[in-house]
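Recap from last week: sequence in, structure out.
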Amino acid sequence: MRPRHVLSLAVKELRGLLRDPLLLALVFYAFTLDIYSHATAMPEPLNRAKIGIVDEDASPLSRRIADAFLPPYFVTPDQIDMAEMDARMDVGMDTFSLVTPPDF
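Predicted structure tokens:
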């Protein structure tokens, strides 16, 4: 495509956009206000998230992984078993569950 044709099509699309005030408002909202509201309203880091740990390995490495979940991002992790994991997540007692399989 020649640059002249691209410029002609771009001008045509901009004219069409200027004739449609609702679409112009939607484009303005989508590229300014919506981006700004998402960037300022959502917290980025975790804050005191509850975590349940199913440690089926019981090795020093799995204990070190479990000890790495520190405040203020996480509450002290609870050691749970596999049967409790789904029930605790369903009720909302835990935000995350970490399963360390045997022979990890």
